[in-house]
Write a structure and sequence with these properties.
The structure holds two protein chains of two kinds. The longest helix of chain A has 30 residues. Chain A has one domain: Orthogonal Bundle (ABC transporter involved in vitamin B12 uptake, BtuC), CATH 1.10.3470. Chain A is globular, with a radius of gyration of 21 Å. Chain A is mostly helical. Chain B has three domains: 124 residues, P-loop containing nucleotide triphosphate hydrolases (Rossmann fold); 78 residues, no CATH class; 49 residues, no CATH class. Chain B has a six-stranded mixed β-sheet with strand order 5-6-7-3-8-9, sandwiched between helices. In chain B, strands 2-1-4 form a three-stranded antiparallel β-sheet, covered by helices on one side. The relative contact order of chain B is 0.15. The C terminus of chain B is likely disordered. Classes of the chains: A mainly alpha, B alpha/beta. At the A-B interface, α8, α9, α11, α12 and α14 of A face β5, α2 and α4 of B.
Chain lengths: 316, 282
């Protein structure tokens, strides 16, 4: 059998990719930045998201994401990068939530709701000022729904750094987080600093949400936080594997979304690409539904063999 | 604080002296004193709201005592390996939580450490041994949230025991269990307490399932406590003093019923119950 030179094979692959994904996808600098940032954000959100779901703090995650709107629009007014607005407001909000309502889930939700309301009021004012000062709704769209293709390449190292801090914190606290999610009283009995662990986790959450607000917008960033984690938890009962799977699902969804968004330039109505955020949310939602349906059917069919269902990825 | 204690015996692991707790203007514990010893099972008996959980929270340091002293054998609490095992009354476990039963036992071993646990042969062996000891091998790899109440209880006991504690605190471990699981859990605890010389403090609102294995009893009512052997404590005079009103103790074969009169007109009943009480049947 005749082997072709590898270079020729590679260029054929390149041509093939080009014809599938639209020409010039991987050469475009905004796309390269988008892929790098998207990957970092997806990994951080996926891993932090598993703990968000396990700790039952999806509402806190969602609130921190929505509050990012106030930070993003405030930063726009001041003329600095939205990233700083997202990070500052998420950190302040996480601290306030922790100060008002530590402990029980109900008072925590109450505190979260109150801080969320106050923050959204601020966001309403800032967004109004943004649109009147710039005479365009572009700022609102970017802040609320993200624009991964317009991220300044200079921000990449900062985004990477914040991602490492967030990811590092949850990995260092991994066992204590699992333990205090299981039962905070049992964790205290074993001298786990539950309060400190909770604060560390909130910082990671605030960073993760801020980063994903950069890519898919403040309003939608919970999708990237909760979605891949929820899917991963359907697939595995092993805590470590759940982190890995959530990160992988997040990265896959982000990449496919970037490619589709780039390709959608040629879709109707034509001349304008569809937003990446739409594809991310649509893909995650579809995947979650796919994982729900068969699992339920299987569960009733082999109710007694739950261990086998647990061990196997649900799917057609 | 510890040196103020009058005297501590060598085999005592935990001692409370005159502990009182005020919560929101209400006194939930009044002058509670008792000690528990290694290798012994002590029952903390009382109805709901009597103060049992508060006693656990005071021992664990989750609740400050307003007065009194709490002594825990040095090494049982502080140090790098805190050795109090604790199983709370309610642990709400989500069925989808990505934690297998063996992961919960593993958290008992090193859940207070930082970083990700690296699988090692020794870690796995320790966890397997503990799971074996509580007869949980058949469901060790299932999600903990999907186990039955009795299975979860056994896993939580394994979790508490794997750190080799000197003191094991169990808050209502028999609640919501069927009679068979109840019996299994009691047998398991009694075996472990004797074999591993652990001091076990186990709370229950019904003393009967514990009667065959209980070495000592701490009876709690209205925030007050009386302690001693079952024969000493489960007596109408002692319990009446505790409740502050007339209480009858009825012994039926190997079961004990404590009946609290609704008012003070039951003096005759009291005399009757006292006359028929037979400590030998306990």
């Amino acid at each position: 059998m005749l082997m072709r030179p590898p270079i020729q094979a590679w260029s054929e692959v390149g041509d093939l990719m080009g014809s599938i994904f639209g020409p010039g996808l991987f050469q475009s600098s905004p796309v390269q930045v988008a892929l790098i940032v998207g990957t970092v954000v997806a990994v951080v959100s996926g891993v932090v998201g598993v703990f968000t779901v396990v700790r039952g703090q999806s509402f806190s995650g969602h609130a921190l994401a929505d509050l990012g709107t106030a930070g993003g629009s405030g930063a726009f007014l001041l003329g600095v990068s939205q990233l700083w607005g997202f990070v500052v407001i998420a950190a302040v909000a996480a601290g306030t939530i922790d100060l008002i309502g530590p402990g029980r889930a109900r008072s925590r939700d109450l505190a979260t709701g109150i801080v969320l309301g106050a923050g959204l009021g601020l966001a309403a004012l800032f967004l109004y000022l943004d649109t009147t000062s710039s005479n365009t709704s572009g700022a609102s769209m970017t802040i609320l729904f993200g624009s991964i293709f317009t991220i300044d390449g200079g921000l990449v190292p900062i985004i990477l750094g914040l991602g490492v801090v967030s990811l590092g914190t949850v990995l260092i606290l991994y066992r204590m987080l699992l333990f205090s999610s299981l039962s905070s009283d049992m964790a205290v009995a074993r001298a786990v600093p539950v309060r400190l662990v909770g604060i560390g986790y909130l910082v990671s959450l605030a960073l993760a949400v801020s980063l994903s607000a950069m890519t898919i917008g403040a309003v939608l960033s919970t999708a990237l936080l909760i979605g891949p984690a929820a899917c991963a938890l359907r697939l595995t009962k092993h805590p470590g594997l759940a982190l890995l799977l959530a990160a992988l699902i997040g990265v896959a969804v982000t990449w496919v979304s970037i490619v589709l968004a780039y390709d959608s330039f040629y879709w109707p109505p034509g001349g304008r690409g569809w937003p990446v955020s739409f594809f991310v949310v649509a893909l995650i939602f579809t995947l979650y539904l796919l994982l729900q349906l068969p699992a339920r059917r299987w569960a009733s069919k082999w109710a007694s063999r739950s261990a086998i269902i647990d061990a196997r990825p649900a799917g057609p | 604080m510890e040196e103020e204690l009058a005297r501590v015996d060598a085999d005592q692991v935990l001692k409370l002296e005159g502990v009182s707790v005020w919560l929101g203007g209400r006194q939930v514990l009044r002058d509670v004193s008792f000690a528990i010893r290694e290798g012994e099972m002590t029952g903390l008996i009382g109805s709901n709201g009597a103060g049992k959980t508060t006693i656990f929270r005071v021992i664990l340091g989750l609740q400050r005592a307003s007065a009194g002293r709490i002594w825990i054998r040095p090494g049982a609490r502080s140090g790098p390996d805190p050795a109090i095992g604790y199983v709370p009354q309610t642990v709400v476990l989500d069925p989808d939580m990505p934690l297998r039963a063996r992961d919960v036992v593993g958290l008992g071993l090193d859940g207070h450490r930082i970083g990700i646990p690296f699988p090692s042969r020794q870690r796995r062996r320790l966890i397997d041994e503990m799971i074996e000891a509580v007869d949980a091998s058949s469901f060790a790899d299932k999600r903990v949230g999907r186990l039955s109440g009795g299975e979860q209880r056994r896993i939580l006991i394994a979790h508490a025991l794997i750190s080799r504690p000197q003191l094991l605190l169990l808050d209502e471990p028999l609640i919501n269990l069927d009679i068979r699981s109840e019996h299994e859990v009691v047998e398991l605890l009694s075996r472990i307490a004797r074999e591993q010389r652990i001091a076990v403090l186990i709370s229950a609102h019904d003393m009967n399932p514990l009667l065959p294995v209980m070495d000592r009893i701490v009876y709690v009512a209205a925030g007050r406590a009386a302690s001693g052997t079952t024969e000493e404590v489960v007596q109408p005079e002692v319990l009446s003093r505790l409740y502050g009103r007339q209480v009858d103790v009825i012994r039926l074969r190997d079961r004990v019923l404590v009946i609290s009169g609704s008012d003070d007109t039951s003096a005759a009943d009291h005399e009757h119950a006292h006359a028929t009480a037979d400590p030998g049947l306990v």
